[in-house]
Amino acid sequence: MEADYVIVGAGSAGCAMAFRLTEAGQSVLVVEHGGSDWGPFINMPAALSYPMSMRRYDWGYATDPEPHMNGRRMAVPRGKVIGGSSSINGMIYVRGHARDFDTWAEMGADGWSYADVLPYFKRAETWHGEAGDPAYRGHAGPMHITRGPRKNPLFQAFIASGAAAGYGVTEDYNGHRQEGFGAFEMSIWQGKRWSAASAYLKPALLRPNCDLVHGLVEKIVIQEGRATGVRLASGQVLRARAEVVLAAGAINSPKILMMSGIGPAKHLAENGISVVTDRSGVGQNLQDHLELYVQYAASRPVSIAPYWSLGGKALVGAQWLLTKSGLGASNNFEACGFVRSKNGVEYPDIQYHFLPIAIRYDGRKPPGGHGFQAHVGPMRSPSRGEIRLRSADPTDAPHIRFNYMSTDQDWRDFRRAIRLTREIFQTDPIAGFVDHEISPGEAAQSDEALDAVIRAHAESAYHPCGTARMGRVDDPGAVVDPQNRVIGVDGLRLADSSVFPLIPNGNLNAPSIMVGEKAADHILGRALPAENLAPWVAPDWRNAQRESEAVQRAAE
């Protein structure tokens, strides 16, 4: 089989590129090892904890023992299904802060500043928000972006308490102002998960110039310095008349590069792989967000805990199956916050996901009745990890080590995030719903006690990125140039979260889709004009951590 372009990976970026390339008349083969996204566990938003722990949909990766996290092997869910991780994630839609992308440009990703990427965020979406500045949002794109109904009183209480604690309110964190507390946005449409497969791939497959091939990619075929196709583990070769585009994600993209002879020469030689081009940055710069659940028992029966009993789940599931409505039609993360941890921090470095039940991602909840929680963690950890091959066998999972909490700054930032979270939950109106703290627990007050909790209980937010970072061609650590071309190999591009120079401020599905949108234009030799809309930055950020401090200073 052959086509103009062979795209490896039907994830967030790969689906977007398949749609845009076929829309432009190019023929495309999309290669995906996983299968169909059909079924309630993926499509019912409230069932989000199930697909990320099912080997049918998840690669089942885990880290090597993390040295600063009690040697724990931590889960690294990655989508093995059409839609990739957009089909198993929490459906939370966060673009990131404008300053993230300006930093990308400063780091050598020329043409990827906020002004450059904003048009692609807009092109990707149809926004259904009820408040915010429409100039920052898209209105005719494939991704439907919605907000939950926020019927549970805990949502509004959390937002109001964040504002009362001095952090302000944001009408649209994906628009003009990220900082503050407000409504979460989600990739849910008409009561169902709206993944990249639903938005981009399935419409593309209706065109005669797009085909989906199921198989495990063994390596990229490179002849005389040019990528000409991909070899599957079955032995089949798919040929690309124009280019091969790698979009297998932050774990599998560097693995495939190294399997193909693109990566650190010494490491490749150790695994018996012939070196095509020595790129030391392949597999390096691995980043993630680490988070902790700060949980409270409720003082009154207000949470959604009763619906997590066997009978409650049956009722929720039946309502969703019949009407695509009710609790089953939401991921139940309907309120959020983005705050700065201290003065001198220009833009938010802590994110909150609020949930009106005390529960884990895997669906387990602590003993007791009603409760609620905020997932909290620093957004810009200086720790960096790596991906390494386990062997030259394409079926072997790679070595993954994030090297979480490897700097003193990590510990200072995480302690501060926990203490600021406690302040918010001690502020009315949410304080009126608190009975007692479940986790970390009221006994954990000292630095040492909090550190012990972090080591034992902090979890990945499942945002791996950065393992084939973008930069200028003279940067020895860069893997792709700003046009998404793999440095040192002709006819090969890479577009997914692995190219991020720096992890964005929030969840990664939206920026991954944006990368696919923008990379498609690079491939097609076109570009949307930049849009110079100025984001909101706290006017007194150098001196004040909270909005209320700046107001008080001005009054004085």
List the defining traits of the structure above.
alpha/beta, 26% helix, 13 helices
Structural commentary:
This protein has 13 helices and 25 strands. The protein is of the alpha/beta class and 556 residues long. Strands 1, 2, 11, 12, 13, 14 and 25 form a seven-stranded mixed β-sheet that branches.
Q: What's the end-to-end separation, in Å?
A: 73 Å
Number of helices: 13
CATH C-level category: Alpha Beta
Mean pLDDT: 96
Query: Quaternary arrangement of the chains shown?
Result: single chain
Helix content: 25-40%
Determine the CATH superfamily. Answer: FAD/NAD(P)-binding domain
Contiguous runs where pLDDT drops below 50 for at least 5 residues: none
- The Cα radius of gyration reads 23 Å
CATH fold category name: FAD/NAD(P)-binding domain
The secondary structure category is alpha/beta
Task: List the SSEs and their pairings.
Elements (H helix, E strand, L loop, with lengths): L1 E7 L3 H12 L4 E5 L7 H4 L17 E2 L12 E2 L21 H9 L7 H11 E3 L15 E5 L5 H15 L12 E4 L1 E2 L1 E2 L2 E2 L2 H10 L4 E5 L2 E7 L2 E7 L4 E10 L2 H11 L2 E2 L1 H6 L6 E2 L11 E9 L11 H14 L11 E5 L10 E6 L15 E8 L7 E3 L10 E3 L6 H18 L8 E6 L7 H11 L1 E2 L31 E3 L14 H16 L22 H9 L1
Parallel strand pairs: 1-2, 1-14, 2-11, 5-6, 14-25, 15-16
Antiparallel strand pairs: 3-4, 6-8, 7-18, 9-10, 12-13, 13-14, 17-20, 17-23, 17-24, 18-19, 19-20, 21-22
Helix pairs in contact: 1-6, 1-12, 4-12, 10-11
